[in-house]
Amino acid sequence: MALAPLPPPFPVTSRSNRRDRHFRLAPATSPRRRLVNLPTPSAAGREVDAFTKYSGYLFELGASEAESPTEYDISKIASVYRKKPLIVLRRLFQIGTTFGRWFALRYLDKVRERSDLMFEVRAAELRDILVQLGPAYIKIAQAISSRPDLIPPSYLDELSLLQDRIAPFSTEEAFNTIEKELGLPIEELFSEISPYPVAAASLGQVYQARLRSGGQVVAVKVQRPGVQAAISLDILILRYLAGLIRRAGKFNTDLQAVVDEWASSLFR
Predict the structure, then answer these.
(1) 3-state secondary structure of 29
(2) CA-to-CA distance for 90 and 79, rounded, in angstroms?
(3) Where does the chain have alpha helices with state H?
(4) pLDDT of the chain, 268 residues: tens digit per residue
(5) Measured between alpha carbons, how far is 128 from 268 in angstroms, rounded to an integer?
(6) Residue pair 175/155 in contact by the 8 Å Cβ criterion
(7) How far apart are CA 23 and CA 19, in angstroms?
């Protein structure tokens, strides 16, 4: 787990633990926020977010396989998935059929001369597809949404929602992750913790809590389950497709190098 500070002037409170790759602890920016009594994990909700529901099969990877390198290394990623060809094929099929259906609907709209009527509907559908496919595609959409010169306003509006409106994953799963990686029950770690995340993003979500030892109010940041496996696999696929597109379109730009640069930034 990478420990990263919240904005200054708050110092970081961290635990030196090699296993803590999905969990980080930092002082909260809003100590006056009202905290609630500590809930048990069983009462914390069993909601399933769209990514888990649609791409949760990626979680079947073993712990050592799902844990991608902390630094971007395409050769190491390829070596992991070379042993999992069925997972790669399943993901390729899922991505192809998902986007294929959307492009087919766009084509039918054009044939039926109702493209303008369905424009906003298709934009919303595209946003849902990106959320289902997971963090790598959300990150791409977030980058594109800052370029109004590249996409139409309706798509810009929908993709902009991906900046701060990502559905959280199960709180029960988040609490289980905290307990597993810190090696203690939630009630021994915190005297209070919010029963639902106070913020959620494509890579993880944040809870506010009060440390049982010392009473300090902290932000507890938990990484989404399966996110490392999903990002690594999708980068591998995107890099492969970039090579095909470059050869087919005879582009002068090294598209694979573009993917590598973006992936390095994402891993950091």
Answers:
(1) coil
(2) 17
(3) 50-55, 63-66, 74-81, 85-111, 115-133, 135-144, 153-160, 171-182, 186-189, 227-249, 255-267
(4) 333 333 332 333 333 343 444 566 666 554 444 455 555 444 444 456 888 888 888 876 655 554 555 678 888 888 888 888 999 999 999 999 999 999 999 999 999 989 888 988 999 999 999 999 988 999 888 888 777 777 888 788 888 888 766 788 889 989 999 999 899 999 999 999 999 999 888 888 999 999 998 889 999 999 888 888 888 899 999 999 988 888 887 778 888 888 898 888 888 7
(5) 26
(6) no
(7) 9
> Residues 6 or more apart from 91 whose CB is under 8 A from it?
55, 58, 233, 234, 237
Phi/psi class of residue 234: alpha, beta or left (left: φ > 0; alpha: ψ in -120 to 50)? Answer: alpha
CA 232 to CA 68: how far, in whole Å? 7
Residue with tokens 């609907």: 105
Q: Which amino acid is at 176?
A: N
Using H for helix, E for strand and C for coil, what is the string for 123-169?
Answer: HHHHHHHHHHHCHHHHHHHHHHCCCCCCCCHHHHHHHHHHHCCCCCC
